[in-house]
Amino acid sequence: MFDSILQNFFNALQWGSFYSLIALGYTLVYGVLRLINFAHGDIFMVGAYIAFFVATFLLGSAISPPMALALTVPLTMLLTAAVGVSIERIAYRPLRRKGANRLYVVITALMCGLILENGNLALLGASRKSFPQLLDKTVYALGPVSLTNQKVAVIVCTVLVFLFLQFVVTKTKIGMAMRAISYDKFAVPLMGIPLDTIIVFTFILGSSFAGLAGLLFALSYPVLDPYMGAMVGWKAFISAVVGGIGDIRGAFVGGFLLGFVEILVVAFFPSTYRELIAFTILLVILYKKPTGIFGVAGTTKI
Amino acid sequence: MQRASAPLLTILGLAVVLGLAHLGIIDGYVQTVLMFIGVNIILSSSLNIVNGYMGEFACGHAGFMAVGAYVSSILNIVLFTDAKNFGLELLPPQMTIIAFPVVLFLGGLAAAITGLLVAIPSFKTRDDYLAIITIAANYIIISTVINMESIGGPRGFMGMKKILFAMEDTFDAPWMLFWVALFTVLCVAAIRRLMSSTYGKAIIAIKQDEVAAEIMSVNTNRIKLVAFMFSSGLAGIAGGLFAHILGYINPNSFGILKSTECLVMVYLGGMGSLSGSVISAVIFTILLEALRFIIPAVDTALHWVHLLPADYELSQVWKWVIIPLLLIVLMQFRPEGIMGDRELSDVFPRLKRYFSFS
């Protein structure tokens, strides 16, 4: 009994890591722009596909798997960041310049997500891609609990990304600018801060970590399909909100919370109850704490 | 007389369409498209109450549709047919003509009560947190249905065609088209009446500034409750109509994609514009159906000029690339949707002579 709980604990850590990594991207963009970037889940999917193509290309040109992995990580992050930034450039920035209602920007984001997933399906076909084996699987047995190196890598990566983002946002100048934009978007350019540069930087950070999440996901579950980002994306958004959207600690904790809830539900109930129970618990949390776990209630001036 | 001409024209137009359908001049496919236009009009204009007029961001409208669809079809099947798992009929099938609107209304009522699920948490949360509550509510409704084996679970639920046949046996007419037309007109009129009443003004006040509205003695909780229940109830009616048009429903057809469709229609038409919602629902449905024919035509054309590799075929998936792309392009040129927050009668003031709403 205790062993299975411990085993599930590690499974939940791994599963929650993906939610956390994607939720960090959601929360970064939301924190700066007050924009729910619904395309983010699909950027994660694009990341997984980019990782697939890069990895097969590298393996095809006779590079050893560990070397290929070492090259795939930065290349994937770079290319996915390019996708995220071009979406911002093409779709969001003109709307922002025109001063459109923010809900229209949200709808545009939803549409970008639909284009990414259905465009992928239309171009590459419905056949699922299987990701090449880049990392040899080693199983460490810690007493009754077994851990694979992939699982450890995923969890460690998530924690490192979280610490890195926390450092960037709270300690560096560019992070200070990001926080300033979220505080007052109109006063910031007056202080000589380049608004667009900071926003592009935010998208680079968010998208590259979504790409990393896609790569890690493809390593752990090596079957890719165009709709893999949709469900994970919605859930990551939900976990970001439960943590308190706009707060990096909130996204990190919220992702793991959702991972734990889902894995525990699957462990004790039939798996079809997963969403039902998980979302009910999240609704209860949100009902008790309407601004999320780390959220601060905003004050309204009249 | 002049002021009544717009309603009279509407009734006349619908009567002509029903007559043509009854004589078989309009074929079944066109009838189905017309019915889907009606359902989409109800969906987009009802979501417009919450998203457009009240300024909240609700994105789980398909969930309420699912509740209405399931409740009304189960009621109909229990009452009027001898289905395998629900026993013999309780009432004579001839009564379907009278009972259908009542059953549809009950489905809407069930959806409105489900709307409470969203309304009560929304008292405390502000702006974007409502998005997650509605998405979660949508998922909760869908997975509840999936887990209920007695109503088909993930396999879906069918048998609603029998109700339609019972109606047509009793009195030969295009009944489904009639009901859709009737409820569409009723729904649009109801929303128009609601929005021009005191409640409607209070809903718009919440959009402008919630705190200020509260200070000006608007009972925001009550208004939110009314708006959500009204919106979700109408979505439930739309769901009931949808179920009876198709004769088959399954939980996955009420997922997030359907909710996204509703959102697209609202924002395409413009936030807070009833005529915008109606226009965008018509355009959207027709576009969706037209692409069904345009895509194969483009496919043959491109193959003919050898622009596409011979083994690649443009599939219907492209539909869901083209529509979002069109919407993004539209947003670049007209960021406030087709109508913005104006009604048709604001754009053409002369129209006001032809109808009257108190």
Structural overview:
The complex is a heterodimer of chains A (302) and B (358). With 302 residues, chain A is mainly α. Chain A is built from 10 helices and 4 strands; from the N terminus they run H-H-H-H-E-E-E-H-H-H-E-H-H-H. Chain B is built from 14 helices and 2 strands, in the order αααααβαααααβαααα. Chain B has a two-stranded antiparallel ribbon. The relative contact order of chain B is 0.17. At the A-B interface, helix 3, helix 4, helix 8 and helix 10 of A face helix 5, helix 9, helix 11 and helix 13 of B.
Cα shape of chain A: globular
Major sheet strand order of chain B: 1-2
Strand order of the largest sheet of chain A: 1-4
Largest interface: A-B, 46 and 49 residues
Q: Largest beta sheet of chain A, briefly?
A: 2 strands, antiparallel
Distance between the termini of chain A: 56 Å
Shape annotation of chain B: globular
Low-confidence stretches of chain B at least 5 residues in length (pLDDT < 50)? none
Q: Please tell me the overall pLDDT of chain A.
A: 87
The Cα radius of gyration of chain A reads 19 Å
- Proportion of strand residues of chain A: under 5%
User: What is the string of SSEs of chain B from the N terminus onward?
Assistant: HHHHHEHHHHHEHHHH
Which features characterize this protein?
A: 302 residues, mainly alpha, 4 strands, 74% helix, B: 358 residues
Topology of helices and strands:
The complex is a heterodimer of chains A (302) and B (358).
Chain A: H1 2-33, H2 40-60, H3 65-98, H4 102-124, E1 129-130, E2 139-142, E3 145-148, H5 149-171, H6 173-183, H7 195-220, E4 223-224, H8 228-243, H9 248-268, H10 274-288
Helix pairs in contact in A: 1-5, 1-7, 1-8, 1-9, 2-3, 2-4, 2-7, 2-8, 3-4, 3-7, 5-6, 5-7, 6-7, 8-9, 9-10
Chain B: H1 5-23, H2 28-53, H3 61-80, H4 96-122, H5 129-146, E1 157-158, H6 161-170, H7 175-195, H8 198-208, H9 210-215, H10 220-246, E2 248-249, H11 256-269, H12 274-304, H13 319-333, H14 344-347
Antiparallel strand pairs in B: 1-2
